[in-house]
Specification:
Elements lengths: L19 E7 L11 E8 L5 H7 L6 E4 L5 E3 L3 E8 L4 E3 L10 E7 L4 H10 L24 E2 L2 E2 L4 E8 L5 E5 H4 L16 E11 L9 H6 L9 H15 L7 E5 L5 E3 H10 L5 E3 L8 E4 L1 H7 L6 E2 L2 E3 L6 E4 L5 H19 L8 E3 L3
Parallel strand pairs: 2-5, 3-5, 4-20
Antiparallel strand pairs: 1-2, 6-7, 7-12, 8-9, 10-11, 10-12, 13-19, 14-16, 15-16, 17-18, 18-19
The structure holds flavin-adenine dinucleotide.
């Protein structure tokens, strides 16, 4: 880990707001599944200067959890511990005395900023590069935890560094790209021991020097008739249209996006399966994987097992998107997990592949 490369933290000109601590806190509005659960204590971090008091308020519980927008968690039960809810705000361009030759700039964003607002703010500054990741729900700080990706881009490709605090020791560290160990929907923060780091701020590298990313077929097809390369604004608009037409809006139908990761398997296994299962899509394995590996479509595998649109009480599989588990009303986390278990078993039974959940499961299993 390196010393602070770009300065750090907000300037302490004003008095921080009083720390909000809520006991026996309802979580239904704090997770996009809309699952009803409670936390023994909820501590709302709105300003970095509240950190010492906020960390102290989470001590003495046998479990602790960080929460951003709640769009990648499933509360399996009430949470018998303290949740630290990250709501810190602030974005700024970093003044660079020797601007980057490729026309890129560095921007600093506090962890609690909604991710899609960060994409919009960046575009409004004339800074391209994040548009393929438009409309992904959640906070900016959490975007690195599973290295969010969509439409041919992962956030690690726009990442410069981050600042995080170790909730156990209070140590603040700067993480470079190499320190983060990014992989497909993965980083050091998702691995054992990683959950003690609270990401405080990201530094992203964006700007006109970054050309359009059109590797994703559906996006490329949108601009096939256009002579000039699409602008970042045009790509942003196209990504929004595609996403809105495909994915359920969590405000209308509770969900956490893709419930399973696309499985990465050996290329030989993928090719053998493709012989048995005509039409099986096979993709490059992506960041952190070797060339002898291939990525399969979890949605396709689940669909083949007949799960699309299936409903067990209020826990269901989306009718148009087999990868998305949905809460039709009052499904509990336990019911959604049970349904996910049945799906896993059937995919394993037919294809010999164990699917891995993408959201973080919180609470008693
Ligand atoms: C409709 C929908 C579509 C989606 N589409 C995509 C997609 O295209 N691509 C994609 O990659 N994901 C997608 N997601 C998943 C989700 O939006 C992302 O993973 C997002 O980054 C989660 O952010 P969050 O703030 O909601 O995290 P949370 O759900 O609050 O937390 C997720 C994990 O990150 C940890 N965490 C949160 N904040 C911090 C922090 N500041 N420091 C340390 N740890 C932290 C939590 O402890 C937890 O382990 C989608 C979800 C939905 C609901």
């Amino acid at each position: 880990m390196n010393p602070a490369p770009h300065g750090a933290g907000p300037a302490p000109f004003t008095v921080p707001p009083p720390l909000r601590i809520i006991e026996n806190a309802p979580l239904q509005r704090l997770n996009t599944f809309g699952v009803s659960a409670r936390a023994r204590r909820l501590v709302v971090l709105e300003d970095e200067r509240q950190l010492p008091e906020a960390i102290e308020a989470t001590r003495g519980f046998h479990a602790r959890c960080i929460l951003g927008g709640g769009s990648n968690v499933l509360f399996a039960s009430d949470f018998d511990g303290a949740i630290l809810l990250v709501r810190t705000r602030g974005r700024a361009r970093i003044e660079d005395p020797s601007p980057q030759a490729d026309g890129c700039s560095l921007v600093r964003v506090q962890a609690g900023e909604p991710w899609d607002d960060t994409v919009q703010w960046s575009l409004a500054q004339g800074l391209a590069g994040l548009e393929n990741l438009a409309m992904i729900p959640g906070s900016t700080g959490a975007a690195v935890i599973q290295n969010i990706g969509a439409y041919g881009l992962e956030i690690c490709e726009r990442f410069d560094s981050l600042r995080a605090i170790d909730l156990d020791s209070g140590e603040i560290r700067h993480f470079t790209q190499a320190d983060c160990g990014f992989g497909y929907r993965d980083s050091v923060f998702k691995r054992p021991g990683g959950e003690r780091w609270l990401v405080l701020e990201l530094v992203l590298r964006v700007g006109v020097g970054l050309g359009p990313v059109l590797s994703y077929g559906e996006l490329r097809a949108r601009f096939a008739d256009q002579a000039a390369s699409p602008s970042a604004i045009e790509i942003d608009r196209a990504v929004r249209e595609i996403r809105s037409s495909k994915l359920p809006d969590p405000a209308v139908l509770g969900n956490a996006g893709s419930f399973f990761k696309n499985p990465v398997v050996g290329r030989a296994q993928a090719e053998e399966l493709a012989l048995r299962e005509p039409g099986l899509p096979i993709y490059p394995a992506g960041s952190g994987s070797g060339t002898d590996q291939a990525k399969l479509s979890a949605g396709w595998l689940i669909d083949r097992c007949g799960w699309k649109g299936v409903r067990n009480g209020d826990a269901g599989v989306h009718a148009a998107h087999a990868l998305v588990l949905v809460n039709h009303g009052s499904a509990s986390g336990r019911e959604l997990l049970d349904l996910a278990g049945l799906i896993r078993d059937s995919v394993h039974g037919r294809f010999g592949i164990w699917l891995e959940p993408e959201p973080v499961i919180v609470g008693r299993l």
